[in-house]
Fold:
Amino acid sequence: MSLLQVEDLEAGYGLLKAVRGISFSVEEGERIALVGANGAGKTTLLRCLAGAHQPSAGRVSFDGADVTSAPAYKRVASGVAMVPEGRRLFQALTVRENLQVAAENGRPGPWDVARVTEAFPMLEPLLDRRASTLSGGQQQAAAIARSLMTNPRLLLLDEVSLGLSPVAVQSVYDSLEGLDRSRATLILVEQDLTRALAFADRVLCMLEGRVVLEGAANSLTREQVTQAYFGLRQAAGGS
Amino acid sequence: MTWANLIVQGVMLGGIYALLACGLSLLFGVMRIINLAHGDIAVLGSYLVYVVCDHLGWSPFLALVIALPVMLVLGYLLQLGILDRSLRGGQLVPLLTTFGLAIVIQNLLLQVFSPDVHSLAPYAPWISTASWNVTSQISVPLIGVLGLVAAVAVLGGLQAFLHRTPLGRAMRATAQDADTAALVGIHPKAVYARATAIAVATATLAGTFLAIRATFDPSSGSTQLIFAFEAVVIGGLGSLWGTLWGGIALGVAQAIGGHIDPQYAILAGHILFLAVLASPRGRVIAHGVAA
Structure:
């Protein structure tokens, strides 16, 4: 049984349809990269999976249970966490408090402050600093660490590299690479195609609310993904 | 020495204003709601304490053992049943909703208790009249000291609660970003309901002190709301310790105004409030309310 099963999912904002009949499944331990141009529907799809946006049609199953209409806080309890675009840390709270508040409201599990600072060493000296004083890269690390503190089985990451320096992006990806696959399945939205292909097991390319290319990352070329990304060729999928 | 006594009386009165204002400050801080029914909820709490005292012959502070849990539950239900729906309608709807709620409470109290003026002082005769004469010209009223101690205890307790408990941290997180709070497992509606329950309970406590110190009737709530609002604005919106200083500043201003001419007591508080609003800090506060 797949960890996540998405069937004919549709979602939008009023008359605008951002996600149009998307279906895919994710296995435990997989790393999926969701790529696509701005407005392709990636963030809306991720928000639907996290319970932050209600789909208008379709079904989302997590670990065999239908969670389509479950709100975000209930999905966290069942093991789905999301790092939203723009990090959105609780700015007036310290980094430690950001981590604590997630741990106190998430699932029991192996992640604690010591373990996340081991995964993201840059956070160690920043624990007692207000989140608002952190740099972009530090905030991204803290946002991922905060989500891990809920002990998710599925971690959704929206635009992890957006607005970060190359050094900060590398640092965040190094930490993500180091995560134990058995502890968190990842779906990440990424604009950097090279990085997406290098990091993920499987790539889904979206265009105008639909998945136009899907395949194993090692079976797709950068050119194939680029063509699907810009709608130059609507590919059916890789292996 | 008269001035020293005025300041002492003002500080004592200000403690009770701060107690009244802390619920208003908490709700604004957590939900960005200005609860226009806050003063009437305090008066409703006073009536509840009055009913318990009248029927059971208890002192007002003993009656709080019954009144506070009842008002906690009422606050919780108020949020889930009324305020939560109004929150979805934008910024103006909660303002109109709480204004309507204030009118409903006033008219219900009028219907049940008549417009007659009541006081809790007869149920706590010693507490309401006892005072220490520190010098021949400085007198410290017991009810004022109790009010100030209660204000410091409640505000300090709330401060500790918000910073040192899981629910407090969840409240601060939800206050900043409710959508993201849900993404880390917090149920914002439950957090809001608990914050409202606490605010209603603190209003009841403040209403009890005010009702021992003076009189109340079904229409007293509007005046109490103005004092609470002024204390919150003078002290800085959303700051609990600021609310204490705001309440004390308001109390001292009223005491000094009242000494100059009894008619100026309330006016002096309003003038201080307007002076704060006109200051650069006041413009920041006004911007915070509008945002």
